[in-house]
Design a protein that fits this description.
18% strand; 11 strands; four-stranded mixed sheet; three-stranded antiparallel sheet; paralog of FGE (formylglycine-generating enzyme); 11% helix; alpha+beta; globular
């Protein structure tokens, strides 16, 4: 019999077990996507098992990141705004420096979704744009109390999208073809600010949405949070 150590400060425990991964054909939210953007790269929907892990309760903040890279120049209103505009390599290096790691995209999805339901948002199936920060500017982490995952992680729908450790690859048993599959692009997850500039398609802020990005890129709406593997004790 094994038990998990208590979650480190400002992290939440994601227990082992199965969860619903991906989106099934035809699943949608109000004002959803066109036939060309129906989440084909996040199919087939399936049950997937993960070992336990910890996830940061909040996105990594400017204040956090400056301890790692004090020479960086960055203009913010609040020290606890989410760090953004950093490449995948910088995010990965920060997590390693703090003795954590970036979550895989499957870990990110389980932390956002919870168990075996197929919710599209951390709060359920229905779209409530005012429940997450989807506006023009970032806000201090944890400002939107309803943007809270079942596990207790904030801002997984709004504020900034988040780098994951994962390369952009097809899902298990997928028949979808994409020339970008492989070790070319990293996957970011989660919605973020300024989505209205993209017609505010609901796909961009749903849990299953996968956004492939070049790892060397720096994006104004993309930050990250860290994960940590669980060490079990007998």
């Amino acid at each position: 019999m094994f038990a998990c150590q208590p979650a480190p400060e400002d992290m939440v425990l994601i227990p082992s077990g199965k969860f619903t991964l991906g989106i099934h054909p035809g699943q949608s939210a109000p004002r959803f996507m066109s036939e060309r953007t129906t989440g084909l790269n996040a199919q087939p929907q399936q049950e997937y098992h993960l070992d336990p892990f910890y996830m940061d309760r909040y996105e990594v903040t400017y204040e956090d990141f400056m301890r790692f890279k004090p020479q960086a120049k960055y203009t913010v209103k609040h020290q606890n705004e989410p760090m953004r505009g950093v490449s995948w390599f910088e995010a990965d290096a920060y997590c390693a420096w703090i003795e954590k790691r970036l979550p895989t995209e499957f870990e990110w999805e389980k932390a956002a979704r919870g168990g075996d339901d197929d919710r599209l948002f951390v709060w359920g199936q229905e779209s409530h744009n005012e429940w997450a920060n989807l506006g023009k500017t970032v806000q201090p982490v944890g400002s939107f109390k309803k943007d809270l995952s079942p596990a207790g992680a904030f801002d997984m729908i709004g504020n900034v999208s988040e780098w994951t450790a994962s390369w952009y690859r097809p899902y298990p048993d997928s028949t979808h073809k994409d020339e970008n599959f492989g070790e070319k692009l990293k996957v970011s997850r989660g919605g973020g600010i300024q989505k209205r500039e993209h017609g505010f398609m609901q796909e961009f802020i749903t849990i299953p949405y996968r956004n492939p990005l070049p790892p060397q890129g720096r994006f104004w709406d993309t930050g990250f949070r860290c994960a940590l593997s669980v060490k079990e004790k007998s």
